[in-house]
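Our consortium's second objective concerns turning raw sequence data into structural hypotheses that experimental partners can test. To show how far this objective has progressed, the report includes one record in full. It was chosen at random from the queue rather than selected for favorable results. The single chain below, 234 residues long, was entered without modification.
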Amino acid sequence: MDILGRALLDYQNGKYAEDIITVSSLEENGVLPLPYLFRSYDDMPKLEQQALGMCQGRVLDVGCGTGSHALYLQEKGFAVTGLDRSKGAIEVCQQRGLKNTVQSDFLSYSNETFNTVLLLMNGIGLAGTLKALPEFLAHCKALLQPNGQVLLDSSNILYMFEQDDDGGYWIPGDVAYYGEVRFQMEYNGKKGPVFDWLYLDYKTLAGYAETNNFNCQLISEGEHYDYLARLQLT
């Protein structure tokens, strides 16, 4: 069930009445405001703006959603392709004027290569788990042209866990890595499937990147445990 796509299409077509509710293994209920997903460049976080300014050549915007990042790049003259597994999201991108779109799971897409693979709004989270991260990075590598780059933002969510008096954190014993989270979306009374999502602290990202033949560079850090990084082939 395309919960995200249904919600985005409603907003795009003037039927906005509620936001997406998210339930995760970290908290009971959260809210994903639909207007935020349609934000302009001026309303984007500084890390996203910085990433867009670093794009080069042909760009693949992975998990493009409403196409806000891709549309900005298209306006700047980039050859950019928006990729999303959500049929509704791709329909919204097309309605908003994005010229090149692909409805596909990321790991199933291999038609072209790019100078920049863009993974914003924690797009690296699509890997789902640490165990699956090497395959995800290998696919990024396969989509890159020589001297290409991966630009991504993510967050260290350790702060969300209870801290004891000795400075340690209480991590559930059934969790392989504290950044592995399970999510479910709900919209208009309908619930989507439960899915895995990965948040990576920078040190862990750098370690996996090096193991998978990427140079990893910390570009900048945000105000709330988030950061922007660039991966380049060694």
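The partners drew two points from this record. The mean pLDDT is 94. Helices lie at 3-12, 34-37, 46-53, 68-75, 87-95, 133-142, 202-211. Both points have been shared with the crystallography group to help prioritize constructs.
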